[in-house]
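Quick one - inputs below.
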Amino acid sequence: MRKGLRWKIILVAAVILLSLFLSYPPGEKINLGLDLEGGMHLVFQVVTDDAINIETDQEITRLQDQLKRKNIEYEMISKGELGKFSIQKFNPDQEGQLRGILDDYFKEWNYSIIGSNVNLSLRPNVAQYIRDQSVNQAKETIQNRVDQFGVAEPVIQRQGLGGERIIVELPGVDNPERVMNIIKTTALLEWKLVKAGPAPDTETLLQEFGGKVPEDMEVLKGDPKRTEGGYYLVSRVAPITGQDLRTARQSTDEWNNPAVGFSLKSEGGRRFEKFTAENLGKPLSIILDGRVQSVATIEDVIPAATGGIIRGRFTYEEVDDLVLILKAGALPATIKTLEERTIGPSLGADSIRKGFSSMVMALALVLIFMVFYYRLSGFNAITALLLNIIILVGALSYFKATLTLPGIAGIILTIGMAVDANVLVFERIREELSLGKSVLSSIATGFSRAFRTILDANVTTIVAAIFLFQFGTGPIRGFAITLIIGITASVFTAVFVSRLIFEIILSKRKRREKLSI
Amino acid sequence: MKYKFIAFGFSGIIILVGILNFTAGKGINYGVDFTGGTLIRLKFKYPVAVAELRQSLSDIGLGTSRIQEIEKGQREYIIRTAQVVGEEIEQEIEAHEIIGNRVIEALRGTDENAAVEQGLKDLNSIDGREVTALLQNVFPDEASEMARKIISFRVNKGIIEDYAQLQDLGISQEAIDYLKDNTFLSRLTVLSKETVGPQIGQDLRRRALQATIWALIGMLIYIGLRFKFAFGISAVLTLAHDVLVTLTIFSISGREMNLPVIAAILTIVGYSLNDTIVVFDRVRDNLKAMRKYGFQEILDSSINQTLSRTVITSGTTLLTVLALFLFGGEVINDFAFTMIIGVIVGTYSSIYQSCSWLFLWKKIFKPKKGLGR
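Output:
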């Protein structure tokens, strides 16, 4: 045996062993995609306008404080479009002082003074930063919640650079409604005094206020699951909010119904103590995401260290979820669902079965055809093909690629297309043989002349697959990846390995006049 | 080459039909991926007639939903709810979700909804954790093992038809009786539920079109590098032809355009070019080898020389796609169907179209240096 041949055999054997090593054991090395394993695929959009609004509100409060401290007179502060507000009718004599405050403490804002009004708008780069941060925070909060709920290997990532979308993939989850609730709840918790209600409609609610909502109050709906529903008139200011919470835990009320127990941070606790002392006997509501959860009368001063409970016709499961959400923190902005796909595990199992049975069928059909058409050389092509599949599986394991149903389709397609290179070579060899050339030289010319064609033909398919990868998400990417790897491997197996097999066969034979092709 | 005008005419007619169908006819039937909406896959315990499903959906005002039976036996269905025309895009997906839940509730029937009201759990939909928690009340030691068996049986079968089936799993009669008292077996189970908002759909359409066009441009550039420009143009024209004809046949078939179908079309772009390149490669060789012959003869013999290869590879690819079409199951069926059309069209076009474009190019532009390199 020639020396070059030995090295080639060693190389091929090494590739086979490496592929087998990488892909063993197959159950652990290859990740199944959501469409095969079952699970949820969610796409959310973070409403970053919310974050800008919250920032504006906080800045207005800060400005009011500053103006009060410096005794600057003005009529009112009013909010304009997103990220804009204005100070109306300030005292023109104090313009210098006002400018000083704005220059020193409100650097994030552009302002212009027109007459006795000041218009402020958030600088675009600051706004962009706030939006970006809110998406990051939302991502972290979702991550926290998912972790606490307990999902194995969740994927939570931002879509694209600077995008406002968050992709969440939760394998194996089969209780979609509960998960959606946990993720989507903004979890903005507020305690507010109830001024009137509940009433069946806003008119009855506002009767004693002359049909108008007073300046310092707002109308909220009762959560239909927790209360009788209807409308409540509550104070606009919340003395304490979810940010003052130290912990939340499962608890029960005095009738042993499930409730959420909480304790407050020291500063919030003191505020709560003072607040309850000032408002004894008044009804206090607990509001989650703008919906009234429950109303209770303040019967005693609640000492700072005690904390309290949130009551509201909860089931134990709902209490668990609410505790989880409160612990994980509030979302910085509301999130909208853009896409929700839930695949049950049995559909996935079915797809795996069917995918594999069609793969076996495809393989069998191609094998039979090749042997029927190319006789003994057909076995050569088959060996190359089987090796191709081994390499493909090994490479998929190495890249930690996710196998999806379209991915299985990609493997099946590779089976069909991989023999293409073999066919090109064999056809060339047949042509050369029919011209009366010897077996050896036919094989040599066949391979060398077909190589350029094989390269061109496969590169184009790979180019298409790369665009497909760019375009697609999850399952489609799985398809593109298998196709790319499969086709690349087919060039190796069909050109290098097939040729090697011919060489081995011919080197062992004395008579070299005939080739079964 | 004799048949080139017949071939052009034939393809022209198909594409014309396609254009008419897209503009004046029903056009492409876009699936949930593109239009937004809810797609629910259900499996029933026993056969349920389409008419019954339709009636239940009509009762809640969703009679226009599409109902598609998967596999014979009237047990598995795909239901696509009619599109919600919401004023605010933002609210639409929530509306879809609500409608999806209403569909499931309606098909479940009143008896079962009553069982849910009573606090009974549906053993056909609760997760392993809940089954364990339930069984732990009475069988603290074996609960998790029993739950695992039950869930894996359910995953395999899709739905538990009868409590008696649990006996075969080696679960004690006591446990089964306990489950009977505390759970019920819904007549249906949701295999999958996909809700897509309209924003995603719009996004996807744009990206699908972009990807196809960029892939075509990528091909043009690659062939431009490897061959003369005329080859690149002819190849891309052939590809565009393949995509258009495939889309036409696809739209006439009434199947739904979804993500895997786009993947199939892009794959066809790559695959069909593969065939064309093999022919062009031979033309390039023959332009050198057959200098004495006329252009048309060179083209003809190139096609003939590669004919067996073209037919064989298309044959093997067709075999595999056919296997996928017949055995791959419903989820991948549209993909396999599109691939079958694409492979056939691609083979036809590389034999009858690609060289004809090359011929026309030479006739119209008369390149001085010839097409060889």
